[in-house]
Amino acid sequence: MWSYRWRSPSDTPEAVAARLLRRKEYWMRGDGDGWSDSPGGVRHWGKYGAAGLLLRAPLPRGGSAVLLQHRAPWSHQGGTWAIPGGARDSHETPEHAAVREAWEEAGITADALRVRAELLTMTAPSGWTYTTVVADAESPLATVANRESSELVWVPEDEVTDLPLHPGFALAWQTLRAAPVRLRFAAEPVAPDLPRTVELDDRGFFWLHTQADGPGTEVTVGAEPADDLTAALTKLLS
């Protein structure tokens, strides 16, 4: 099957400069680096918890891809796939930590993404937590891997489960994956801002796009709502 797993070039002058900068920053470790111990000897990385960035971008024909990190063999759960992420420092919000980790591990800058939601995706008896920050980019951005990654790949959303996922991410993915919705508008949308990720209470995440031949359920927004999903999206987008 044809795949849109997109590996970006990483040897431009800008990419080399970014790598050198991150090598310097690597030794400026934050106060969150360290293990959190739970009963039974279970350990989680991050003294103040951890956070990661699930970054989604549009593909041709209305689909979506997420940026995944192939973890370096030497790292915890090396060889598996997950999102860029790591320990939170004591002064950081989950969003700050996730965006910082995306910069350090993938070269993604804060101005290139738009945060859509935060979701607590794991807790431990010690009080340790992992928060996934969900964000969108306008396109599959170029990336620069650091030593924690074997590679960084934009993976089509429906191909994520084909990969050997980090166990924690595999569990979280069931909640984080976005169902595609193909939108039609009964009138000109006030603020289209599409394609994009949205989170609806008790329904999870949806990827909204307007490609007529694209994937997902078709929903007409702006007319008399035909069901609860249409009503929720009409309210959100009006």
TrEMBL record:
Matching Pfam families: NUDIX
Protein name: Nudix hydrolase domain-containing protein
Recorded family membership: Belongs to the Nudix hydrolase family.
Nudix hydrolase domain mapped to chain residues: 46-177
Keyword Metal-binding included in the entry's annotation: no
Keyword field contains S-adenosyl-L-methionine: no
Alphabetic keyword roster: Hydrolase
Molecular functions per Gene Ontology: hydrolase activity
Organism of derivation: Nocardia asteroides NBRC 15531
Cofactors (names): Mg(2+)
